[in-house]
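Why do we care about 3D structure at all? Because function follows from shape, and shape follows, mostly, from sequence. That is the central idea of this module. The next example makes it concrete: a single protein chain, its amino acid sequence, and then its structure expressed as tokens.
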Amino acid sequence: MTTRTLAAWVAPIAAKQREDTEQVLAFARALPADAWERPSGLDGWMVKDVLAHIGKGNDQLFQKLLRQVVAGGPVDTAIFRDVDTDGENARGVEERRGRTPDELIAELEEAGEEIQDLLSQLTEEHEHLRQEDPPFIFKGFLGMVEKESHSLEHLAQIRAALED
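And the structure:
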């Protein structure tokens, strides 16, 4: 794992993201081979499908937003409004169905590293980033991301399905 310098206000967000990623990775690495093909508890998805979704699915919206902020341009909130979440998730999982567990784990690692890299590029000025058109408050968005862990929600679903 790369050592990065973080703005003080970003450090807790980055730590939470890193911890969440590490939990998912530890789980994925410990999964027995036959568990990858078991039902996940999500309709029609196997365990490996959910892990593929976490690594490279619709969740790339967070990275897309961070890339926009780091680039210094206006935040295009249409990336949230205009997305067909279910369709994009299904397409992303279908693209990855043939990947091996090692390939999916590598994608999870890459996504986690990209988030950490992007967070490390945020400055003190970004803490107060807000725009009027379209309305967007960056720190509020990051606070929501910090509180709600999409990855850990899916991890809990998988664990529950495997216990049944």
